[in-house]
Amino acid sequence: MFMDESLDGVVVDSSWRKSHQLTQQSRGCQTIPFHTTETETQAIHVSNCGTQTDTNAHLTNEQLDRDLETECPGLTDFLQRVENMVIEELAKNAKSHAFDGYEVNWADQNQTVSCTHRLQYTGAQERGLQVTGVSWSCTGSVIACAFGRVDDGDWSTEKSCVCTWNLDRRGLNPKVPDMVIDVATPVMCLSFHPHRPSLIAGGLYNGEVVVWDTSHSQDPILAQTGLSADTHREPVYQVNWIPGPRRGELAVLSAGSGGRVLVWSIDSAEGKLMLSSGYALVRQQIPQSSGKARGSSSVGVTSVALSSWDQDTFLLGSEGGLLLKCSFSSQTAAAVAPDGERVTLMAPVQFSFTPRSGPVHSLHYSPFHRNLFLSAGTDGLAHLHSVLQSDPLLSLRVSDSYVFGVRWSPTRPLVFAAVTAEGSVQIFDLGRKSLRPAATIDQTTGGRPGYCLEFNPRQSHLLAVGNADGSVNIWQLSGELTEQGPRETAVLEQLANEVAD
């Protein structure tokens, strides 16, 4: 029924493979002929050099002494005789304080005063803005300038700016700032952070306080107070960096014509300045001095000085001529009605100096003596004060008009500079017998005032002066004005110990 049967295989040709082969085409390409060459080099002259020391290079102490005695007879005995004396004198020098604060300057001394830069921002000058404040960065390379108005004008709606120049930048253009920060209202003052060169604090005409971070060019505002119940109601005339409530942190101090001194902590996460403490000046709570200040019961602050010797002490100058010594640790509440502030305002005044006849525009503590400070204002005088007595130790005629700024030299204990309403800068040396200026700088501002000045903290021979014509002059002082002489600190101590007549 079933049987094996063998059949031939069936082959089915692939139509796809044939059709695919028909569509394939061959192509070729060829480059232009390449030309190649081979070359060789070979040095012809070869030289070898070598050196060798003597085999007996290791000499014993006895051999050295014998050779020294042969070349310089008696030298060994002399060194042995003076050895103990030299060691004693070196030990005395190690304990001496004769050169404390003295820094050797190996740079060549300048014999004249010269203007190295005249910085201008066309956008500010076209609007007639004035330089209201200058500040150096902690590195001493960057100068920041605040533009606003000190004279008459519609301040409330006028826009202004803050400009910075890096003087160490190659190809510096004095008419083109490295950075321009536009501000909606005039900037009255500013201050660089003492340790972080990118942070600048500024006080505005509308009472706001702002901290800018120049490392963020697109949005430089790090924190600001905004307009709230805590902020100033009047223009802010000075800002400073002070130790904050937490260790290692710095807070911003602001003072204005409303009679408030406020301390702000930075909340960078929220972009806000938070009020941490505040002080209010009330005339009824100010100790009476031998003179009588002008003005109403309100005490508008025009200047502030911080002591590097005592972090609890600060000085205030007022619109009415009051000159006050204050304390951050005051526990006396200010006699003012609450106005929505989140902190209790304190009365900081501890002592009142003899008042001046007009506004006190500038104050500055001596960096070389804890008790001495300078004041200047509308009387045209620079007054040398001691915090231990009410009357000035010395008064020097700076100008027949106003004096807007005064600063001690950071390297010369007896030297200070002042800028006047005529635009000139007067530099005084208290070590001289004459009370006339040791140097007068004519800024060629057309008789327009100079409003502010600051010494460079790193390059003490540089002095920046901000002027009413919208320019900032950088002056390089001579070696005579910057190099400390002998006994300057001792002479300053003698001045501090004098009693005013």
From TrEMBL:
Coiled-coil ranges (or none): none
Gene3D superfamilies: YVTN repeat-like/Quinoprotein amine dehydrogenase
Main location: cytoplasm
Pfam families in the record: WD40 (PF00400)
Gene Ontology MF term list: dynein heavy chain binding; dynein light chain binding
Regions crossing the membrane: none
Compartments, as annotated in UniProt: Cytoplasm
Any one annotated GO CC term: cytoplasmic dynein complex
Keyword field contains Cytoplasm: yes
GO biological process, one term: intraciliary transport
Highest taxon in the source lineage: Eukaryota
Keywords from the named record: Cytoplasm, Repeat, WD repeat
SMART domains: WD40 (SM00320)
Protein's recorded name: Cytoplasmic dynein 2 intermediate chain 2
Lineage: Eukaryota, Metazoa, Chordata, Craniata, Vertebrata
